[in-house]
Design brief:
It is built from 5 helices and 6 strands. The protein has 157 residues and is an alpha+beta fold. The chain has a single domain, classed as Conserved hypothetical protein from pyrococcus furiosus pfu- 392566-001, ParB domain.
């Protein structure tokens, strides 16, 4: 892994009406655009699986729509981004994960986006610059031996 450089020409992927987004300040992704990009670039995206942890208190968000959980399509891959050198983040598929967990499904298909790929879908103007700083700080910590307890290459949600 190596340090990132800010994209001086970064243009935020600002959502329009009906675009799905995920996240909060400072990192919000335009999921509608992420999914379109994946559909058009399947040869550039890692399709694998994600391990689903068994049900336990606090594993799923309280804000999930129960009706939508029932409708969730477990064959549609969730979307996971390489958030920092030792950590992945689920950015699309929380309802699918909740359904899988309740059904006892051990894994789901998952698209994994690299630190370079997912940056283009940030919805805020300063997000790329802030992310580069965040990534590089975390990379330095990993290089110093901090955070080696984290599992890289496998994610349980």
């Amino acid at each position: 892994m190596r340090k990132l450089k800010a994209n001086r020409n970064f243009t935020p992927c600002v959502p329009v009406v009906d675009d799905e987004t995920f996240g909060g300040f400072p990192f919000t992704w335009n999921i509608t655009h992420v999914q379109t990009w994946i559909d058009n670039n399947l040869d550039q995206v890692d399709l694998s699986v994600v391990q689903i942890a068994p049900p336990s208190k606090g594993t799923d968000s309280d804000s999930l729509d129960e009706a939508w959980i029932l409708e969730a399509d477990l064959t549609k891959p969730v979307i996971i981004v390489w958030m920092r050198p030792e950590f992945f983040k689920l950015i699309d598929g929380n309802h699918r994960v909740a359904k899988a967990r309740r059904m006892g499904v051990a894994e789901l298909p998952a698209y994994y986006l690299t630190e370079q790929q997912h940056r283009q879908f940030f919805a805020r103007e300063q997000a790329d610059m802030m992310y580069v700083k965040y990534w590089n700080e975390k990379l330095e910590q990993v290089e110093k031996g901090w955070g080696q307890w984290a599992v890289v290459g496998q994610m349980k949600v």
